[in-house]
Amino acid sequence: MERLKKEEIVGALRGIFENTNLVVVTQFSGLSVAEASDLRRQMRAAGATFRVTKNRLAKRAVEGTTFAPLADLFTGSSAIAYSDDPVAAAKVAVAYARENEKLIVVGGALGGTALDRGEVRSLAELPSLDALRAQLIGVLNAPATKIAAVLSAPAGQLARVLNAYSEQGDTASKSAPTGD
Q1: Cα–Cα distance between 106 and 118 in angstroms, integer?
Q2: Which residues fall within 8 angstroms of residue 92, CB to CB, at 6 or more apart?
Q3: 3-state SS, one letter per residue, for 129-163
Q4: What pLDDT score was predicted for residue 155?
Q5: 119: number of CA atoms within 13 Å, CB side?
């Protein structure tokens, strides 16, 4: 491979390492083109990307970034899965590795924190960022709904009581004897 082409690849990988939140390092052995395409399709659907890397170039690209601790993981047939969503790449990679033994999750990093294989699996079990936002909105919205219900209940009860007194008054005035 030409030196210029290698520098271009290192630059592209460095851009990935500098501009992403999560990187999952995987090893694959015997993964067919169809299987790799299926994995890439699943990654894209989740908002993540899967990219096969050359170990020496990946190690060079990761130097000086927050993902520098990943350098030792690049051995064998390596690939990275990455995403801005803190769980998307981990979810897809772990799920695919469960179905296909040819893909092995080696480790990863979230921000500047290195993750081992077990921590990547734990991360994959977390809800996505959008699901967490929806849960947070639900939690914040629930007290407001309850407050509105509590505040409207006394007014409704007062209206019912006044209506009952009014109906009693109408009935009492109709049934009361007149003084004529």
Answers
A1: 9
A2: 39, 42, 43, 46, 48, 50, 81
A3: HHHHHHHHHHHHHHHHHHHHHHHHHHHHHHHHHHH
A4: 65
A5: 13
Residues linked to residue 78 through DSSP beta bridges, in sequence order: 27
Whole-Å CA distances, 98 to 102, 120, 156: 10, 13, 56
Give me the CATH code for the 3-126 domain, please. Answer: 3.30.70.1730
Supply 36's token pair.
Answer: 């790799």
Instruction: Report the chain (180 residues): mean pLDDT per 10 consecutive residues.
Output: 87 91 91 92 93 93 90 92 89 93 92 88 82 79 68 68 74 58
- Are 22 and 75 contacting, i.e. CB atoms less than 8 angstroms apart? no
pTM recorded for the entire structure:
0.69
CA angle 45, 19, 92 (to 5 degrees): 30
Whole-angstrom distance, CA of residue 79 vs CA of residue 103: 10
